[in-house]
Known about the structure:
This protein is α/β, with parallel strands linked by helices. Helix content is 36%, strand content 11%. The protein folds into 2 domains: 9-16 and 248-370, Aspartate Aminotransferase, domain 1; 27-246, Type I PLP-dependent aspartate aminotransferase-like (Major domain) (Aspartate Aminotransferase, domain 2). It has helices spanning 22-26, 30-43, 50-62, 74-84, 102-109, 128-133, 204-213, 235-244, 248-267, 296-305, 335-343, 355-370, and strands at 67-71, 92-95, 113-116, 139-145, 162-165, 179-183, 197-201, 289-292, 344-347. The strands form 2 sheets. The protein has a 7-stranded mixed beta sheet. A two-stranded antiparallel ribbon has the order 8-9.
Amino acid sequence: MSDLIRVPADEWEQMKVPLLDMKAELAPLRAEIDAAIARVLDGGRFILGPEVDAFERELAPVAGAAHAIGVSSGTDALLVSLMALGIGPGDEVVTTPLSFFATAGCIVRLGARPVFADIEAASFNLDPVRAAAVCTDRTRAIITAHLYGRPATVPSVADLPVVEDAAQSIGAAPLTGTCACLSFFPTKNLGGCGDGGAVVTNAGDLADALRMLRQHGARPKYYHARIGGNFRIDSLQAAVLRVKLPHLKAWNCARRANADRYRALFATAHVPPELRLPEDAPGHVYNQFVIRAPRRDRLRDHLAAAGTSTEIYYPQPLHLQKCFAELGYGQGAFPEAERAANEVLALPVYPSLLAEQQAYVVERIAAFYSA
């Protein structure tokens, strides 16, 4: 298979490869995390307070922005960003049909209409040219997602704010749009011990609005200038994330190294030419290592039987979701997104993944196609 890694044949059937090993990530930091949690418990400030303030100060430069506003989840980061930009009924927001549901769901929750444009085949990200082409005089914003950790080319349309869905791409590239929305869901490159998120921006007035909106639009307390929501990040999550944040750069480097190793292994494996690996790109942080696989579903079953966990991000594009049927899109509307949904398969790529495990995954994929 490959001279890079040699594993005795009798060990193949014993190997297990999870999609993510969170215990391995937390183990070396456990004492620091326990101390951070104890610090919050002893301090008695569980909502906002000094831990959140410190985390926001430390996060902003890592995200390449002037301001960071901690919120309750990546979904709420998208929602409160659109609220701060004044998106509402009758407005249109252009976005991608291949992303996590929240990317489009938040638009509809505010009474606005998502307008989809197809993706780039190579990057899986929103095609900026196609996005610009569907903008109208009703378009009030664009949401582009840096899918799988690869930075997208941010669309540029005069006077239109761009919200970057950076849930999967923290540390990949500095902010270039109006704001970027981060997720600290445990599986992300910087994951908490529960839900959490943030919005980063270079605009002081937008940051001020976001801070107000995350507390029901109140300033001062009990006096509400706008209708916001309860979008605050927990102090406990902020404390845990402060412990993990200094390790983000090394973890992202490990993910890139694992992606490089996959490429080297696949280069000498007997797989069909139709199996395509993700293109590398500057800044790619590989929240997922996503291949395009012929007979994808059967391959996934084969890998599961061999002890290897995989995932499909995402099996149905957003424009074909039942809840968006009233938008009027049908099969064939966005062929690149639909083709990707039928072919993509995410392989394990987490930082502590062993070289032997990667060799096993590639060997099992080669065995499937040789059969």
